[in-house]
Design a protein that fits this description.
575 residues, alpha/beta, Rossmann fold, Cathepsin B, Chain A, 3 domains, six-stranded antiparallel beta sheet, five-stranded parallel beta sheet, 24 helices
Length: 575
């Protein structure tokens, strides 16, 4: 209802676990760090708990999306089942074909699968969401599965995610054998007040790169007091506040708007025993308010008069300076999501006078501080993608560079894919990339953003706006490690790795995308069939990446590139 009014491409506070809207609070970052550490160690059970609405399912999906090809994962989000049914579900999630219904046969098949993956150098995890719903017999079955191991390593790692009742279950005497196997546990905390503000702004930025909506600090207070920092409750009250502001034809969430929304939510569903007279007057009041609502929304002259009467005039110049000027979504300057924008479709080279063209790449690297180059490189890449520039301060202390880039890009609605490659592939992909260099004498790598290719001339972006380092392929390859970090957007929300770790709606979305790029005979259903796999493999062959039929991050990137109608920056203009 209000998306066009506020300049949103979609509702920012929908109650769905969309990884694109995953806000990395301090608590959620620590939970992700625990999960990543658990994967690196590969033993025992892992337990993540949190109250209802703290974002556990979104955390799970974001974690699964971040896994690379060295990890196989099965995700179970509805564990209300018996031991044998759970075992069959695990088998199916790993893509193991079987018609057997015998428990021993199923375990033998799973064990053979795990041994093969171990031989291939892959780790295997089982992630169970809503794990507080597991019964005692199922937990005992999981304990037995955790016994699948070699002489040195566990073959299957099990991650349990659920409400605090899960911890109570695992610490009980009856389940002590399972509880003793928990090697790592973490409990999610609600957001702090400052995180609540950042969370609200983060979701608005994802829904619209330039929205006109603003929140008063006192409105934030009202929202935080009601929600107590629980993300789901924040979503509910913010959605109601936006609807209220829309009805009032205003672009600011004031204290009054927030209070009215909270009051409506608090009193919703409260049954009261009214007498006949009270009920009659209540009915009259509701009828009057309903009529006034329809008039305000649909009859422009009266709406304008009410607005002029009750809402104080705002100085236009102040609005513009504060960024609260309404966006004219009908203007030719506004490009809808998913369409080509000429300003984004090609990366414009900096004016010659602004380039640091009198310094070679080698000389520039001599002055570079490796660790401090990470944020400027990511910032330049975000600018090329025309996204936000939000950075979480405490992430600067993250040692692992891949983790730093991935977590820092998330608040800006971006993903990061690390790959070891050559310039020929990057030219073919034609997307900006953050390149890893080892400055002479530096113990840690440094980073520069590849922003333009023009014939034999390669332009890298430095930490300042005026720093443009121009080099050639020979010099670049001498200092470049071959590691590149590709920023990308998951435009169609294709989650997981298809077909092993995906959702049915993602398979349907993939097929629609394939249909749009020329595979007209694809059947639009939930099955990842042979025709779909062949189509994916033909795209993989075209770009020279491993042809395996799996749709992971790199395959998604090239599929979005193939469609050629998204707002994606290019390194060079088509000739």
């Amino acid at each position: 209802m209000y998306n066009k009014f506020f300049g949103f491409k979609e509702k920012p506070f929908k109650l769905v676990p969309n990884p694109a809207y995953f806000y990395l609070s301090k608590s959620h970052e620590e939970a992700m760090a625990h999960l990543n550490y658990a994967i690196s160690q590969g033993d025992g059970f892992v337990e993540i708990t949190g109250e209802v609405g703290t974002g556990k399912t979104t955390l799970c999906r974001t974690f699964l999306e971040s896994l690379n090809g060295s990890v196989e994962a099965a995700y179970i989000f509805n564990p209300k089942m018996g031991p044998k049914q759970l075992l069959r579900t695990i088998i199916e999630e790993f893509g193991i074909n079987t018609r057997s219904d015998n428990t021993k046969d199923l375990i033998d098949m799973l064990n053979a699968f795990l041994i093969k993956k171990k031989a291939d150098g892959k780790k295997v995890i089982l992630l169970i969401d809503e794990a507080q719903n597991l019964n005692r017999n199922v937990l005992e079955q999981l304990r037995l599965l955790s016994n699948l191991e070699t002489n040195r390593d566990k073959l299957l790692q099990i991650i349990l995610v659920g409400q605090p009742e899960l911890s109570e279950m695992l610490t009980s005497h009856a389940l002590r054998q399972v509880g003793q196997r928990i090697t790592l546990s973490y409990q999610l905390s609600p957001l702090t007040f400052n995180e609540c503000k950042e969370y609200i702004q983060y979701r608005i930025n994802i829904a619209a790169q330039k929205s006109v909506i603003k929140f008063d600090r006192s409105a934030y207070r009202q929202i935080y007091r009601y929600s107590k920092g629980i993300p789901r409750l924040i979503n509910i009250v913010c959605d109601r506040s936006l609807l209220t502001a829309f009805v009032l034809n205003q672009f600011k969430i004031t204290t009054g708007v927030a209070k009215a929304s909270v009051k409506e939510l608090v009193t919703r569903g409260q049954a009261k025993n009214y007498g006949f007279a009270a009920g009659t007057w209540a009915l009259i009041g509701i009828s009057f308010l309903s009529i006034m609502f329809l008039i305000v929304v649909f009859y422009q002259p009266i709406r304008d008069k009410i607005t002029a009467t009750f809402i104080a005039p705002v100085d236009v110049q102040t609005n513009v300076m504060a960024g609260t000027e309404p966006v004219n979504t009908e203007s030719e300057d506004v490009t809808p999501t998913g369409e080509i924008s000429d300003s984004v479709n090609s990366v414009t080279a900096a004016p010659k006078e602004n380039r640091v063209s009198n310094i070679s790449l080698a000389e520039y690297l001599m002055t570079m501080d490796g660790r401090s180059s990470r944020q400027p490189a990511l910032l330049q890449a975000m600018k090329l993608w025309q996204t936000g520039d939000q950075f979480t301060p405490h992430l600067k202390d993250v040692d692992d560079d891949q983790t730093y880039f991935r977590l820092s890009a998330k608040p800006n609605g971006m993903f990061i894919h690390r790959l070891e490659t050559d310039m020929a592939f990057i030219k073919k992909l034609n997307l900006p990339a953050i390149l890893e260099f080892y400055p002479p004498g530096s113990p840690s790598p440094g980073y520069l953003t590849l922003s333009r290719l023009d014939g034999d001339e390669i332009t890298l972006k430095g930490k300042n706006e005026t720093e443009w380092i121009v080099t050639d392929l020979e010099e670049l390859e001498f200092y470049w490690s071959g590691v590149a970090y590709l920023p990308w957007k998951n435009f169609h929300s294709i989650w997981g790795t298809i077909p092993t770790q995906s959702y049915k709606d993602s398979v349907i979305t993939l097929k629609l995308l394939l249909q749009e790029i020329g595979f007209e005979n694809v059947v639009i259903d939930e099955k990842y069939d042979a025709f779909t796999q062949n189509a994916v493999e033909s795209i993989q062959t075209k770009y020279g990446i491993p042809v395996d039929g799996y749709v992971g991050p790199l395959t998604k990137i090239i599929l979005y590139r193939e469609k050629n109608s998204f707002k994606m920056p290019q390194l060079s203009k088509p000739r």
